Amino acid sequence: MLIILGMFDHTQGGQLVLHELKVVIELAPGDVIFFPSALITHQNLPILPHEFHYSITGYTAGNLFQLRDQRFHSKAQVRRLIKQEVEAIRKGKGNQHYLEELKLIVDSPKDGMKRWGGGWKLFSTIEQLRRSQ
Fold first, then answer.
1. Is there a contact between 10 and 27 (Cβ–Cβ < 8 Å)?
2. SS3 75
3. Nearest to 116 by CA among 39, 15, 20
4. Under a CB-based contact definition with an 8 Å cutoff, are residues 88 and 94 in contact?
5. What is the residue-averaged pLDDT of the chain?
6. Which of 41, 64, 84, 101 is 20 to 30 A off residue 7, Cα-Cα?
7. What would the mean pLDDT of 83-95 be, rounded to a whole number?
8. How far apart are CA 106 and CA 115, in angstroms?
């Protein structure tokens, strides 16, 4: 996330360049943009000497989302919970649905890649943005 601040002519400089997407975006002071900055090479174009440009950057590590998806347990804790739930089910006290949910948390790398790809689908494409104007 970037929040753009400063006193500059956003049509003459300070644009955000997203290299892999081959896109240059004009961002005026006060604009906010969300993009996966760890995955896209980016830079700002120079502004005029008498102008100034600042930005506030927000970053969220992907592991925080993973921790949320794991019900705020480490994978080791989830594995222990699975063992406990299997034992509880064997004794007639467990919950099969809960066990299945726990097993989904400890997924394969392939499932993780699928989830990562799903995250990309949350972002708009250039065509979608152009159509919405």
1. yes
2. helix
3. 39
4. yes
5. 88
6. 41
7. 95
8. 13
Distance CA 76, CA 74 (A): 5
What does the chain come to in residues?
133
113 pLDDT higher than 70: yes
Q: Please, are residues 33 and 12 in contact by the beta-carbon 8 Å criterion?
A: no
Structural domain of 90: 72-120
pLDDT at 108 over 80: no
Beta-ladder partners of 17: 24, 43
Give the residue among 65, 49, 55 at the shortest CA–CA distance from 13: 49
Do residues 88 and 114 both lie within one domain? yes
Residues 31 and 77 in one domain: no
pTM: 0.59
